[in-house]
């Protein structure tokens, strides 16, 4: 049994012009101790999927279908009391905007201590000691003094470190990181990501890392899930995804990465934009932007399949390289030939 199993998850929002299915039939799993990267353009559904794990979807949004099983228990069936025990204790979250995640009227140290007291039967003194220890562990100097500082007295990078300390305060089994380095410069970003990796290894914590940065995924993740318009279009190990991508959307993302020594005048870009999720295209959702699209792509939505055997994702080997493209249903007549695009070699 995987630590986390998401099956056929559907999350929709009710807007004036219709129903937006931000996540539409998403399935994936995370093993104990592994780091799963979730990538895709803005609007792909990455953050909504992450918030759903802790049932943090507020109106006008709603989780309408699917299961989220954590250690075999369906989170969507948890009582409010069980959910309070789960949040921050077994599953913790590092939000995109650390400044917004911290309460401005309480000291940083007190907020971490509060998280400890909420899930552990400890004295105030023990909770304070734990908070100071965590601040030291995440690299905040003079932690005992900084315990009494307010969030506005911390830099952006230090705020993010404090949020990580809070998330790790109860030794969670799963850490959900929703673009945890947004707005930080590259030096601080590297430090934060290395800190997350080291602490996750120390605490034996699995990580779900949502990011736009494919370089971060290459360095920090074990497996990758590529999302497009609310659905998974590819899933593989990092090595397989980077050296042999199977979906045209992933190929487009890879081709847009600048490389040292690249002498191209312009980086390739995926034409068009993410579709309106109120009125998604018929067939494959990516076909209006896909250079390999054929008639079948406009008519039928391809299932997520093992790219080698054609077996449905639900029945495929857990380590199989999965892709949702008609190339792997056998219905794409011309086939895909995009090795040149991926590697940036001379044509």
Enumerate how many helices there are, as a single number.
13
CATH class of the largest domain: Alpha Beta
> Termini separation (Å)?
46 Å
Class inferred from helices and paired strands: alpha/beta
What is the topology?
Elements: E1 4-15, E2 18-30, E3 35-39, H1 46-52, E4 61-70, E5 73-74, H2 80-86, E6 91-94, H3 98-101, H4 108-119, H5 124-137, H6 143-146, H7 156-167, E7 174-178, H8 186-203, E8 206-210, H9 214-220, E9 223-228, E10 231-237, H10 238-243, H11 248-255, H12 295-299, E11 305-306, E12 322-323, H13 339-343
Parallel strand pairs: 3-8, 3-9, 6-7, 7-8
Antiparallel strand pairs: 1-2, 1-4, 4-5, 9-10, 10-12, 11-12
Helix pairs in contact: 4-5, 4-7, 5-7, 7-8
Explain what this protein looks like in three dimensions.
By secondary structure, this protein is of the alpha/beta class. The protein has two domains: 218 residues, P-loop containing nucleotide triphosphate hydrolases (Rossmann fold, 3-Layer(aba) Sandwich); 118 residues, Rossmann fold (3-Layer(aba) Sandwich). It has 13 helices and twelve strands. The strands form two sheets. It has an eight-stranded mixed β-sheet, sandwiched between helices. α4 packs parallel to α7 and α5 packs across α7. The N and C termini lie far apart (46 Å). The C terminus is likely disordered.
State the gist of this model.
The protein is an alpha/beta fold. The chain has helices at 46-52, 80-86, 98-101, 108-119, 124-137, 143-146, 156-167, 186-203, 214-220, 238-243, 248-255, 295-299, 339-343; strands spanning 4-15, 18-30, 35-39, 61-70, 73-74, 91-94, 174-178, 206-210, 223-228, 231-237, 305-306, 322-323.
